[in-house]
Amino acid sequence: MSERVAVLGSGRMGDALVAELAPHHTVLWGSRDPERIAARAAELGATPVDHEAALAADIVFLALWHRDEVPFVSRHRAALAGKIVVSMANPYNADYTGFTTSPDTSAAEVLAAAVPEATVVGAFKNTFWGVFERPEFPEGLSDVLVTGDDQDAKDRVMAALAPMPFRFLDAGPLDRNRTVERMTLLARELSTRYGHHPHVSWRLLGQATPEPTVAS
Ligand SMILES: NC(=O)c1ccc[n+]([C@@H]2O[C@H](COP(=O)([O-])OP(=O)(O)OC[C@H]3O[C@@H](n4cnc5c(N)ncnc54)[C@H](OP(=O)(O)O)[C@@H]3O)[C@@H](O)[C@H]2O)c1
What we know:
Layout: E1 4-8, H1 12-21, E2 26-30, H2 38-44, E3 47-49, H3 51-54, E4 59-62, H4 66-75, H5 77-80, E5 84-87, H6 107-114, E6 119-122, H7 129-133, E7 136-137, E8 140-141, E9 143-148, H8 151-161, E10 167-170, H9 177-194
Parallel strand pairs: 1-2, 1-4, 2-3, 4-5, 5-6, 9-10
Antiparallel strand pairs: 6-9, 7-8
């Protein structure tokens, strides 16, 4: 089903996400400077808008840094009431050695607490921007871990994202982001060490367990 979605931010993740969403959905692309992104938006088939206009969408993807997304939702609590807000941020510290959030929470949970009027779903935290261009690895498609406490909202986001070239996994409730965000930090560290960054992602390797043979 086609949705009216917004993507906030025109950086690496915002651009990559708009490119994937625009062929399937009505996309409002929110920027602090919509004029600057007008030509790129036209190329991708999205509508460049300011932050306020982007809030007309039903699903709002925040391709912003955690330090910017929290003030953003705090300012727009009323307009976000009843909407789905997708948290993509990993709350890295300045030198990417850890997080600005404490170990007993996650960026997604902090965001949800800042905008209780909305329903927060986590996605794409483990998907580095370079993977959008080449999502296929020798081991298969990249996994996108989708989290949330509201199953209907999570299902709706997964349905909206389904045409994209990833494998979407329901990764449980929002507090799973304490793990997902730390998996991303580890992936960043390992991939930088071994020269894969930013073409790095997670894929859970698994095979169905064969039925045990019943002895006659
Ligand atoms: N890069 C990755 O591989 C990756 C992977 C997974 C998750 N993420 C997460 O995705 C988020 C965005 O990452 P990115 O790499 O796309 O960052 P980025 O390239 O720096 O883009 C961030 C965008 O945020 C907007 N912005 C900047 N300062 C702002 C402010 N003060 N207030 C409101 N908006 C502001 C800007 O868009 P406008 O100029 O158009 O307003 C900017 O282009 C981060 O939270 C990151 O943790 C990134």
